[in-house]
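INFO batch 0412 | record 1 of 1 | parsing
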Amino acid sequence: MSELLDNGSNITSHLNIARSLDNNSKKKFYSANDLKQIFRSIATKSKNYDNTIISAEAFWRIGFIKPPSGSFDREDYNKRTWESKAANVTQIRELLGDCETTIVATLRERSAYIQSSYSEFILATLYQKGIRKFIEYIQHLTDYKRQLEAWQSHFPVTTLSYEKMCANGNLPVEFIQALAGSFDIQEDPETQQKVHNAGHPIACVAFKRYLNSISDLSIEKRNKLYNKSRRRFTRCSKGTPRTLKKVNSWLTAKEIRHLRLGFSREDDYIRTHFCRDFVSGPTTKESDNQASIVPFTKSDEHLCLGWMLTQKQPCLAWFTNPSE
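INFO prediction complete | emitting tokens
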């Protein structure tokens, strides 16, 4: 990546490019002039290759306005948000000039995407609110139809199903092959990575959410405490952690079904117009009783915090008087 920017280094990353392109991002790694130079380099040097791929999830978030705190005019906010998104995509088109570009969007079943995004947001920021507030906060991220249409107004758009690419157990290879075509990969079975981009356990993320609420903790101290507790939690196989490791959802099966019902009509549209393999998930009432969904309960939260802070099986007395 260093060849894209004069006096640059290999710290030039796709993520930093995406963040710097976002008009609403306060932290920009590259200046406007840097971005012009980067995209001139991409347009020129991509001619030497069959495929040039720039990939970062932050591209999906580009242009969105942070919701104001307190009460606000939702209709006006929505209008300004999508105008901002459109302007940001237009700017990217202008930076690319006449460089032939296709936007590839990977679509994930939305209730799973929401929960994954929630965990990632807690880990990357000081966010400390529950997932239901988060769903209101990021509603534009899950508006797949308008997202795709915003990009489609300036670029050809193609879509991939996240679940379909995961089916063979090698997501990175499936993703690259979907973009660049088939190729042979010689991997040593002994060193081949079995799990790619694994998420942190929900119990650990809940502990990070708790740490986010402690205002006088420095970022360095907060991260050190979190990483130390996560390592201990991962290694421990007895007592409280064994129970908490079974938790795999921030939402109950019933809440997931209601989310899916709210998306169902638009999901059908997406399958018809964008991605025929797009997954919605079951919406029948029977799905309220899915044994495979183990939600994180208030009781689990108490157990989690108790164990993370004491490193042993907590008892009820500890919650009454934690100093003992």
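INFO post-check: The first strand starts at residue 103 and ends at 107.
INFO record closed
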